[in-house]
Fold these 2 entries.
Entry 1:
Amino acid sequence: MNDKDLFRGRRLIIATRHKKEEAIAPELENRLGVTCIVPENFNTNMLGTFSGEVTRVDDPAVTVRKKCLWAMDTFSINLDVASEGSFSPHPSCFFVPPDKEIVIFIDKVKFPSHGLITRKAKNDTQNLIKGITMLTNHFHQFQSSYSGAFVETDMLRCTTPPG
């Protein structure tokens, strides 16, 4: 199984109102084998607008996560991409407004309530870490040690005792 097989045939929502799907969808469909959907009447501007008609109450990172989870819950699809941009004054060139764009991809695997497994590659059983509920340190450790990381769900199998 390759990485594309994890997503092939699944529907993915792109939570946007601003035509960002034109850049994002072709890459996701080609590289992951998903079918991208952009809901017509999904008003992401309710979380804030650049022009200020609606004040964004959270920082861009929190806002993009809210946008992604909101779309997933609204349309009952567990795969989503959303982005949130912000402009601010450049620290040394005050007349240049740099744009920061945060893009988030969420596949609801119930993390962190279901732990994850990190390993060097899909079938590598040496040096794996199981039961991960905080990913950042482990991911960076594998990335620096092996120039990459394979992350998967660590679904603990539970059996109900008889009776």
Note: Residues 50 and 86 are 8 Å apart (CA to CA).
Entry 2:
Amino acid sequence: MMSRTLQIADKGAGLVSPGPLVGCLIARGEKILGEGFYVFEEIKHAETLALEKAGAAHGATAYVSLEPHAHFGRTPPCTDALIAAGIARVVAPVEDPNPKVSGRGFAHLRSVGIKVETGLMAQEAERGNEKYFHYMRTGRPFVHLKLAMSLDGKIATRTGDSRWITGERSRARVHELRHEYDAILIGAGTALADDPSLTDRSGRKRRRPLVRVLLDEHLQLSPESKLAQTTAAAPVLAFTGKDSAGERVAQLHELGVEVCRHKSSGRDLEYILEQLGNREIQSVLVEGGAGVAGKFLDSGLVNKVTVFIAPMLIGGSEAPSAIAGSGAETIADALQLGDVEVVQRDGDLEITGYLA
């Protein structure tokens, strides 16, 4: 039942930020009476939707993927709805890290005699809401680094040709990843070399447009670029140094690009993540290039890594590698991934893991 509840919660991907993914299942014994998942714009929470579908739920069990809230916010308390429906037992894996909620929902349910059980599939539940949990605990977005490379670690040939290293299924998977995130981030070099659109082409509905973030210390972004020309479709936020040319700033502002100057440089990652967090950006997918990847890893700010590896050998000492920066001095210092998952997509491998 809880496994099914977590699957229901995942249906809200792209539709809940800055809130959490929440699923609810109402059951009497082995019989499922109703299901619901949270969508930010629909106001009603997962518990309310599941109860409406269940109809008579007196004495039933509510399986919820996250602690029900007991405070008045955009909606009345979910705990009130569960109590009014006569729910006898609530099974929820983890507390909500939101200080407005944490522990209070469980306490409210217990205070009226409802049996509350916690801990079941807690690791899976927190992993499913990893972006929300990280954002609530730190105030900064969850950072997921995505890399695509050849078998020998190259992201382009020595002439700069990079289309396409990975196959069609891997590229489709990248758009699925983009759909899950609030923002996508690249460096100025990638923007100049590829002139990307950085759009979510998954075909799935999303609540907020994907914010395109550019680290551009000297503000080299051209007013003619695809990013500058498409701000009406999705926001573009360029972080740059305080000495960037005022004329270029004015040109980009006129096109709708938000230029954020910083006194030290446009690559102060702590400052950049803080600014994104202030904008309620819960998660960011870092797509490159090598310098940006290296800087994020050197700074210890990456939470999750996904690498797509294509079965080809590019070779050449002048062909760029996937990660620049300072890197490790010894093998013992190398960053280790945990909870690694490997998926084969035609000839490519998709390898995902977490950094401590």
Note: DSSP finds twelve helices and 14 strands in the chain.
